[in-house]
Amino acid sequence: MMSSSLTSAAGGSTTTISAVETVTGWHVLKVEGYSKTKGVFGVCGYIYSGTFSVDGHYWSIRYHPDSNSKKVADWISVSLYLNRLAGDQGGAVNVRFQISLLDQKGEPVPSYTKTTFHSFPSADQACGYSKFIKRVDLESSYLDDDSFQIRCDVTVIKDDRKETNTVELITVPPPDLHRHLGDLYASQVGVDVTFEVGGKQFKAHRNVLAARSPVFMAELYGPMEEKTMSNIQVTDIEARVFKAMLHFIYTDSLPEIDENDRVGMVQYLLVAADKYGMKRLKSICETMLLNHMNTSTVATTLALAEQHGCHGLKEGCFMFLRSPGNMKAVVKTDSFQNLKSSCPSIIDELLVNVAP
Known about the structure:
InterPro entries: BACK_BPM_SPOP, BPM1-6, BTB/POZ_dom, MATH/TRAF_dom, SKP1/BTB/POZ_sf, TRAF-like. The protein is an alpha+beta fold and 356 residues long. It has helices spanning 34-37, 135-141, 177-187, 206-212, 214-221, 239-251, 262-275, 279-291, 298-307, 311-322, 326-330, 334-342, 344-354, and strands at 2-8, 15-32, 47-48, 52-54, 57-64, 75-82, 93-102, 108-120, 125-134, 147-164, 193-197, 200-204, 231-234.
């Protein structure tokens, strides 16, 4: 959301321009096996949610089952934590955030929905509610099969003020290069290279591919064989993944992905992004995998993070596995057995980072 105001200084031509922009995101922490978390961590101990990104900043929800202060021992505490991983922007972050207890239908409980404005001066800072809900109230009314959910909505507020000697009365439209390139790809006008992928053909523009990927630049304009070829075989990427990557190359965004296929598709896209040196797409895939992490996907995600140098994603996997019960559930999965065989070196590191 963008709003602006112009305020002229009396007796002069100086003008103050104030533009306020907000970016919003949300995340849900599901606490399964609530009874097993009581009395385990002690006062100030906490469980992290998965890391989620809003406006380039990385956040987690902290759940304190035994409160965060001896003065409120009968309460459960919840807070929002700013945790900068690789790629974060630095500096103070002004936010409005809302923490809600969700009922069994997944709707916020009004009496346990709380909103706060806060300025995080730096990384490794938390802000929240020591008295979020009394333990007895949670246990008597809001547990569902020994589980409950907390939702956190985060709105980052950016205020950009500057003074100028003239007032620009012309509104500059937002960047639309991605739309024009997307239209170019859809029209297929001027395409000059064809990729054969999984029995399907994809036509594209050499110069656009080369501008977006250093690997395509080397393949299509370097000394490699593909420089003079109009048809190129791709054997190590699925057709649907290659198509999604081309969509990103032209539009700088991902296409619509079916919810049931999202994690698997993003995992394959991460591998493709790493192969073609597309750092932005790779980072987007890492963030999406962090936000959709669960006990059935974390082992495969950890293997990908290790194999493709995704340090922030690997640390996010370790954070998830530190939560009580998660590690025990993961070791029973087939994907964990595959992890042991495909990345045996990660097991020792996993024990060091996750074991109490």
